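Quick start: what a row looks like.
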Amino acid sequence: MKRLSKYYILPAIALVLLGAVLGVQMESYLSDDDAYKYLKKLEQAFIIINRKYVEPVPSKQMAASGIEGMLNELDPHSSYIPAEEVKALRQSYQGSFGGIGIMFEMVRDTARVITPIAGGPSERLGIQSGDRIVQIEDSTAVGLSSTGIQKRLKGPIGSDVEMTVLRPSTENTIEFTIEREKIPLYSINSSYMVDATTGYIKIDRFAMTTHKEFMEKMQALRDQGMERLLLDLRGNPGGIMRSAVEIADEMLGAGMTIVATRGREDSMDRRYRASPGGAIEDMPVIALVNEGSASASEILAGALQDHDRALLVGQRTFGKALVQKQFELSDGSLLQMTVGRYYTPVGRLIQTPYNDGDMKDYYKEKFASYDEATFHPAEYRESIPDSLAYTTDHGRTVFGGGGILPDVVVQPDTASLERFVASTSLDFAFVREWFPENELALRETWGERETAFLNTYEVPAPVLNDFWTFAKENGLKLTADSSKADASEGVFLASKVEVSEAYVSARLKGYIGRQLFGSHLTYRIFNKVNPTFQKAITLWPRAEKLSTYHTAAAMPQR
């Protein structure tokens, strides 16, 4: 059966909302007679199904399914968000909520505190990493899901919640009465000095507070002597576009374009430019990207690359250049719909091509071209048509048509035992099981000695042996016969174990450090063995050359 055209359906949805909320005559908002005809057809079908189907069909379900079906005809990133999920979504971008200020994880059937959030009510009352949440108010918390724990701990700011924890170090239970506060949801959880002059900041997502967090981290690192910045955007899925624009503004010269947007409505045709007085316009910058860097991350990366402001290192980015806007429906649900596209300063559209409604082909094309760009970058560049080639401010060639290709591509070793361990999260799973049984001894030894742990702790050989035993029990296969090795099946040469131990030890240490001191320590340890990071810190001469382009005398205005 022929599908309804999106050009008719989208106005229909908008006008149904207008009619319901404002009580207006919908016909006056339709672009042509056919649109109103198809809107009436949808209404007829809804009424017939609601009244005549052999079994009752909930109207809420029908409406949601209908909206989702219409959105499936559009681009891959337009979506419907049910009313019950809207509050959590908004909290994640606003950067705060009413809660007790902890990060926790589920260990078997019990919530374990990873770390209390600095300055929050839980930290002030003495709740510690490792505490098990066993009771909330007068009911057990054991057996609750992660969502169930969150629902019972969150509440109105200023209200109290009673929580009982089991502290493994003493084997005693402790009762707390905690006043809920506005708790920040940080988008930057890792920043530190790599060496005497190199600062590192990892932005996990772009929320309303990200620019403020970024500037605070920058100042703290400058106070420690930072003269150059390693900006990590790997795995950052995007978020609030404005925050990415604000951070780019700090790095680019006055008047430089950060991003341009274009859409069906005139209001979408905008060009965002850098303002005078950026905080780090001349500092050398290297930005790390990968296939998980998307949307707002790509806005920032594209602006830095097009203006030759930073050296991009890693793998090709995701390729999402669609601008979404949220339209609230009458029941509080949201239509998150694409209303425009964004273009990098030199005019690149880096959206991965798609056919309307065809998600399977969209991702198939995306991953196929990603593999080519990652493992055969020279051939990938040659395959891109001239129409998708652009020139940066100072004459370098960059490409559109599907993600941002970094200046230096670091090829992951997909056949390595190290990559298998990381990609399957065997290291994380092992530490989650191993840590509770060894927590008391670790805390007695390291306590609050985070710096000492970072600099001197080494994973003991027996723990490494236990890890390999655990890995073999959970999917890893080792063989002495090279003809039987097959990374895709999890089969590796036994001789690779010894070669991989430095990498695996660092990963285990990172997760142990996370359990002891919080998530901020993890990447500081991981980066010591991460190939992309290690390659990047050898490339400062190239980044420093780019930074010289941004003197006051050499700033192209486009």
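That is the whole record. The two ends are 48 Å apart (CA to CA). The longest strand covers residues 334-343.
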